Amino acid sequence: MTTRLRLVLGALLLALSLPLLAQDSLPGEPEVTIRQDGDRIVEEYRLNGFLYAIKVTPPNGPPYFLVAVDDDGNFARADQVQQGLRIPSWKIFEW
User: Fold this and answer.
1) pLDDT level of residue 78 (50, 70, 90 thresholds)
2) Of 77, 78, 74, nearest to 87 (Cα)?
3) How far apart are CA 12 and CA 49, in angstroms?
4) Which of 28, 58, 60, 71 has its Cβ near the most Cβ atoms within 10 Å?
5) Which domains does the chain have, with CATH numbers?
């Protein structure tokens, strides 16, 4: 086997294995739990088991988000968080 053929086969093997390597490093999809709490709808967003956001849809009025402000399970309304990392919650598309 020539050196050139070995290089081509090695490059082909590397190109085929890159998508598999990239999948391991990407975070997973968030897990969304939707439940009815009285007359409002509560959606819990988790990533790798960590609850990072809660969307509350009351029967009257617009929905609002509660976001995690620390790792101890404390939440605050997304529109009232003053400092630290805020999770974007823009509505891009809806159907």
Assistant:
1) confident
2) 78
3) 37
4) 58
5) 31-80 (2.20.130.30)
Terminal Cα distance for the chain, rounded: 57
Compute the distance between CA of residue 31 and CA of residue 37 in angstroms, rounded to an integer.
19
Q: Cα 72 vs. chain centroid, distance in angstroms?
A: 19
48 has a pLDDT exceeding 90: no
Closest CA to 90 of 58, 53, 61, 60: 53
pLDDT tier for residue 25 given thresholds of 50, 70 and 90 = very low
Task: Please give the backbone phi and psi of residue 11, each rounded to the nearest 5 degrees, phi first.
Answer: -65, -40
CA dihedral 29, 71, 51, 68 (to 10 degrees): -100
Answer yes or no: is pLDDT of 35 > 70. Answer: yes
Is the separation of the CB atoms in 84 and 92 below 8 Å? no
